[in-house]
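Bench notes, afternoon.
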Amino acid sequence: SGNRWVRNAMYNFISIEDPFLLIEKSKRSTLIIAASGPSLIKSLPMILTYRASIQLWALPSSLECLQANGISPDCVVCTDGNYWAQTLFHFQDADIPVIAMPLSASSGVPQFAKKVFLFEQPAFFEQELLSSASVTPVSLPSHGTVAGSALLLAIQCGFTQIIFTGLDFCYENIISHVNPHMFMHMLFHESLRKTPFLHTIYERALAHAPECDKSKNYRGSHVLRAYAGSFRFLLQYSDLSVFRLFPSHVDTPGIKGI
């Protein structure tokens, strides 16, 4: 809600020490951005093989899976302002080198980072706070999804090849996220004799992804189609090379499958 964003911005403005504001152009031309769709698991062997030669960013919901497979990202991009955003960081064994975030992101997130990179998605309260400290961070259009914000930030950083993994825009059968994932732990521990775990995720899949294509083993919804369509809008005037590793059956013009 708006009130939470304002509270987060006030708390983060007071508590974050020595954030950095200027983008350093990466020396590596290739960036992989890890989202948390079911297909992420297929990409892990490739990420491990080429980890030393690529820049790896993660969205918060992919952190537990990466950690479980011995992979640490160079940066985590976080824009969510709710409480659950910070719980996604609790599985980290060590501090994340960089968390990139606006002031309105969850106030518990900065504690998990060695350094915080602040960017602005310009909201009037963020602008007022930052201008009062004579601070001018990188400004990104507000996209409404953390994956979209990560893409916009990557473009600002000058990456010439951007590869998403786990960006599926659909369910794989009744599975919404890669395993392990914090939400799956929660649902498992809330299971009861009359509401077993598989029943719960089945009911959630029917509710949130009612469109089913049995021949391709995936489920979707108008919300997930709108999510995919937002990337088409971001890239329609761009000549960037943007790809998806092990793409799902959901087509996204402007993002090529590899």
